[in-house]
Design a protein that fits this description.
Mean pLDDT is about 90; it is low at about 1-25, about 330-340 and about 710-715. The two termini are about 40 Å apart. A hairpin with a 6-residue loop joins strand 45 (about 635-640) and strand 46. Helix content is about 5%, strand content about 40%. The protein is elongated.
Amino acid sequence: MKLLKDIQKIILIFSFIFTVSSGLLLAQEELLVKRQTVFEFAKEPTITKKEDQFYIEFETKSFCDVTVSIEDENGDIVRHLASGVLGKRVSPSFQANSLKQSVGWDGKNDRGEYIKDFNTVVVRVSLGLTPMFDKNLYWEPKRRQGREAPIMQATPEGVYVYDGGTAIDFVKLYNHNGDYIKTVYPFPGDKIKDVKGLNQHTFPDGKTLPQKPTYLRQTFLTSGNDYGYSNRKKYAVEGLPSAFGSAHYGMEGYASSILAVNNGKIALGMKYLFRFATDGTSGGMEVEGPAVALFDTDRNKKVSAIVPRSACLSPDGKTLYLTAYHFCRYGKASADIILSGDWHTYHCVLKMDLAGEKSPELFVGSLELDKYGSDDKSLFVPTNVTVDKEGRVYVSDYMNDRVQIFSPEGKLLKSLAVTSPSQVSIHAKTQEIFVFSSIVYTDGRGGGIKRKTPFKSGITVFEEFSKAGKKYEVPFPKEFTNYRESDWYLGGMGFPICGIVTTDGTETNIWLSMELIAANVMSTGKGAGDIPSSNIKVYTLKDKTLVEKADFEKEVTKKNINVFPATYNRQRLYVNPKNQKLYISECRYNYIGKAFKDIREIDPITGAIRKIEIPFDAEDMCFDQKGFAYLRTLSTVVRYDISTNPWTEVPWDYGMENPKVHTDTGSARKESTAISAIELHGGGDWHTGGMFVNSKGHIAVGLVTARTAESNAIGKGFKPVMYPGRSIGGRGGNVAISVYDQFGKVINEDFIPGLANNSYGVGLDNSGNLYLMSSGTRIYDNKPYYLRESGSMMKFKPNKGKIISVGSGDIPITLPNANFLKEPFDIADPSYGNAWVTGAEWMFGGVGFSGKNAGVGCSCWNARMGFDYFNRSFAPEIDRYSVAVLDDEGNLILRIGQYGNGDSQGPKSIAPLGGDEVGLVHGAYLATLTDKFVFIADPASQRIVSVKLDYAKSHKQKLPIEK
C-alpha cells in the first residue's frame, strides 16, 4: 500500500512538472491558475522545537496553496509566516517540487519581537484559499449617479429610472412608492448570457466573457455621445466624431438621453439605439440598434449629431417614438460639435421599429433644421412624447403652449392649451392627462429663441382623452421652481425637471427629479453651494396638493453615504489592521478634483458607516499595523494616531515642520500644521502611485518628480542614476517609488529606475521587496495584451531591477540600438515606448487600467491593487470581472469574482451567480484585511463588495512547551 502511494506521489510530481514546463511554452502561461485543487493533508501538521526554532512539518496530497500563520487566542494573526502555491516556484519558506514541507519559525511576531507567552498562541496551517461573497457595503440603490435629471417611466410593475453620466449608467426599477426592486442595467449576472450582440473575448484559460467595448471599459452601452471607442459592430455613421475629448475621454459622458419602457421592452439611446428587456435579457433583440440622432455638418464640415431627449414605446412595445432634438449652446446637451449659431432644434417627432434595423422616420413636424410653426402639422420645440393605453401619441409642444394628441398614424386628434408644457404623463388607472410645466432652455448667449410669455412651474390635470377637459392645477414644491430664464445656462441638457404620474391602483403618486445645475440659472441669488440639490422625490397627490412620501437623497444621507459619486468614480479603499475597519475616500476637491477632506469608516461586520473629518485635504492615505494613519499631499506624508479625537500627529524623527499642509490649490483647501512630516523629493501628478506600510513600519511611497533636462536633476535636489534607456517620462515628470524606515529616514529614493507613467498601488514585504501594479501593458509573443489600457503586476528586490526603454522622447541617454538586449520586450507604454524590465522577480499582465496607454487619454480614471501581510497581491482584472490573487512568487492562486450587478448578493439573492457568488461590473479598487476579507469597490454597481476569505482545510495546533 505504501509503495502504491509513493508511485502515485511520483506520478503527481512529474505530472505537475510536465504541466508547468509545457505551460511555459505558452507566452501567457503566467495568466493561468497554478494551484492544484485537492486540499487535503497526506500527513497532518506536527510541531517540533530545536533550540530556539520551531518547525512546522506536514505533507499535502497535491500542489495546492498553503498558508501558515501564528495566531493569538482571539484568532488574530501575530506572525504571517508563509503563504503560496507549492510546486516549482515557491515562497522562500517552502521547499520546491515537494509535497512534504518543513516551515521554520523563530518565535517572533511580525515586528520582530519575541512572543512573551507561547501558551497564548496556536499554529494554523491552511490549504485552499476559498473566497465567498459576504455582503454589500456602502450600498444604497437610491444614490444618485449623474448630474442630469434622472429620467423616469411609469409601468404597471413600478417606475423605471435611468440615471447616468460621469461614465456610469443605471436603469433601476422601484415600486410606485419609491422602494427599490431591482437593477435592470447593468444586466443581472444570471441573465447576461441571454443578452444578444455583446462583444466576446476568449482568454488564455479558454474562458469566453462578454466585453465592455467603451474606452474606459466600464459599460456595455454603446449608444452615447461621449464614451470614446464604442467599437459598434454595425450602424456606425461614417464621419461621426467620437467626441472623445469633449467628455474628458468619456469620464464625463452620457450613454443615453432617453428612456422608454413598455410591454417588457426598454430603449435607451443618444447617438444610437440600445435595446433590451425588463427581465434583464435583450428580449431576443440585438442590443445595438441604428442611429437615433439627427445628423448635420458643423461650420468645419464635420458630421455632428443632435440627439433626442424624450422617447416612448407603443403599448405593444414595438414602436419607438422620439423627440426633443434640441441643442442648447451652453449646455453639454445634444451635439458633438457646436453648429454655426448657438441654438438649434429639429422640431419633430420621429418613429421607428424598436427591433428593426432602419433609422427613425418622420412622424410629425419637420426634418428641416430650425423649421417650426404653430399650425396643426408643425411643432415649436417639442420636448416630450408619451402614449396612452390605446396608443394615442401625446406631444408637449413647448413654445406653442399646447399638447398635441395624435393617432398612431400621425393624425391630429386634439390639442390641449397649457403654458410651457415640458412633459406629459398618463395616469395608468384613470387615463387622466398630467401635463408638467417647467423651464426648458431654448436661449443661448448670442442666439436662440426667447419665450413670448413667461414659463410656469406646476402640473395641469386634464380628464382622459374622450373628454380632455381641464380639471385642476397642482403647484410644484418650492425647490422645483427656483429656475429663471437665462442665456448663461451651463452644464446640462436644457431639461432640468423630470416628472411623471404613477399609481399602484390605490394612491396617485407624483415623481419629480431635478438636474444639478449652476447657480446662475437659479432664482435664489445664492451661490451654487448654497442651493439645495435634489435627487428623486415621491409625492402623494391629496386634495390637489403634493404630500411628500419619499426623498431619495435623505435616505442616502441617513446612511452616511456620499450623495453623489466621487470625481472620476475613484473610490480608494483602505483597511486599518488594528481596528479591522474599512475606510473609503471619494475625491472631490482640487488638486484637479482628486483631494478628499473626509473619509467614511465602515464596519465590515455590521455595515455601519461613520463620516470622519481628516486634518487636511489629502491625496492618498494608508494604515500600519499599529493603527496609525498616513495622510499625504503631493509631496508630504504626515502620520497620525487616530485613537484620539482629533487625531494626534505622530512625528517622524527625520521629518520636517510644515506650517501649511494641504493638497487643494484653491480657496476651498483644508490646511493643517505638521510638527514633523516626511518631505518627499517629488511634486505631483494626476495621481501619485500609492502607499503601503509593512509590518516593520517601513513605508513605500509612489511619487512624481519634476524633470530638469539640462542637469538630469529631478525634484528637490534628487539626482537619479542615469543610464542608456532610462525614461524620465510620465505626465508631470519622472515617476519614482521611495521607501522610508519607521523613523522617516530614506532607505531607497528610486526603487525601480526608469519607471514611467505611474504605478497603481504598491506593496512592501518585510524583506524589503517591492510589489506594484504598473501602467505598462504586458507584451506576449511580441504583441501587447489585447486590452491596451491594462497594466502589469511586478515584484522587485531592493536594488535589483530597472526598466530600459526604447522609443520614448523622454529618454535623455538613448540606447545604441533598438535591439539592445536582444530579447523580446516585456511591456509597452507611451511613456516608455517599448521596454525591457530587468531584474524583476516576476510579472503578471492584463490588470488595472491606465488611460494613457492608448497613446491618448488620461490617467484620472484608474484602478488600485491590494496587498496583504502574507505578501499576496490582489490585482483587478477589469475585463474578466475578477480579482487575480498572486502569491509572493507570482503564482496565480485563484481568481475571485465573475460578472454580476448589485443584485448579486449570494445564493438567495434575486440574481444568484454560483461559485464564489462575487459579482463585479467594474471592480477597480481593492483593499484587504489579511485572511479575513477582500474589499472591492465597484462604482459601476454602486457598491463595495465584501468578500469573506476562508480555506478549504485548516489545522490548528498549540506549540510544544517545554516543562
